[in-house]
Specification:
Blueprint lengths: L4 E2 H10 L3 H16 L3 E2 L34 H28 L5 H27 L12 H8 L4 H29 L3 H31 L4 H12 L10 H6 L4 H7 L4
Parallel strand pairs: 1-2
């Protein structure tokens, strides 16, 4: 008889871990343990502070305006681009792990879903880092910014707001911009990188859809209209509005309604 792992303790260890490879190892091992039903979802305990996540010594974190200029026409420009994508995926691991340990009282599927997303983000990071190494660089070689984590801090108090704004705004933005990046990579002759982004793109549709599912679940629990609630949150957190272009087909596949899409397009 196997000894069960305390899911929440294990997630928090992974989240706190600063070493990149150790964080990947712990995340992947915990996902396997969950699939093999070796985890216990009892004893939620205390969530760790939102600013207590483990981050490596490198990359150096700077303001968005100070991030190196990306490009496609030469090797280093593509390396900087792939480094930026790797950093997004690394942040996405922490975002998923944070969701998996922060919010008490959710159904067991919620915690299973967010650990699954953390596992997939770890896989994405490994894919991109491997190609980055092929280009002669390493994760941490270039400065990066922490813009993605800002929303985790802003929504740490409310699971409904987290589900609305991290998967359905931040991750959905990836659905919008990825096809354009892929086209430029292909034009530059880097077909392998474009193919890697195909894998990530397909998974990210599922991540946004999962966020939509839990956002709708929480709205139903609180007797709220999902569309009007989403609109109000956008107005609160993005008072200057949202900017395109938008991948309407991918967003629809990920659960965006026609009314939400009309809002994004400025038609409502």
């Amino acid at each position: 008889m196997h000894q069960e792992i305390c899911y929440f303790d294990a997630v928090r260890v992974a989240l706190r871990t600063c070493d990149v490879d150790e964080k990947l190892k712990l995340t992947r091992a915990l996902a396997i343990a969950m699939r093999e039903k070796k985890c216990s979802l009892e004893n939620f305990g205390a969530a760790i502070d939102v600013d207590a996540k483990g981050i490596p010594e490198k990359p150096q974190l700077v303001k968005p305006k100070d991030v190196p200029k990306r490009g496609f026409g030469h090797n280093e420009g593509r390396a900087i681009m792939m480094h930026a994508i790797a950093h997004i995926e690394f942040n996405a691991i922490n975002l998923a792990l944070d969701a998996a340990q922060r919010f008490d009282g959710m159904p067991s599927k919620f915690y299973e879903d967010w650990l699954k997303i953390a596992d997939e983000e770890a896989y994405h990071f490994e894919l991109i880092r491997a190609h980055l190494r092929f280009l002669g660089a390493e994760y941490g070689d270039y400065p990066a910014h922490e813009g993605l984590w800002d929303m985790a801090e802003k929504t740490a108090h409310d699971v409904l707001e987290r589900m609305a704004l991290v998967p359905r705004v931040l991750e959905a933005r990836g659905l919008d911009v990825t096809p354009g990046i892929q086209e430029k990579l292909r034009q530059a002759g880097d077909h392998h990188a474009a193919t890697l982004l195909d894998i990530i793109f397909a998974d990210e549709i599922g991540h946004v859809a999962m966020g939509t599912f839990w956002f709708h679940y929480l709205c139903k629990q609180q007797n709220l209209s999902p569309e009007s609630t989403f609109f109000k949150l956008l107005q609160t957190y993005f008072p200057k509005g949202m900017y395109g272009p938008y991948n309407l087909e991918a967003r629809a596949e990920a659960g965006f309604t026609s009314s939400e899409i009309e809002l994004l397009l400025g038609k409502s």
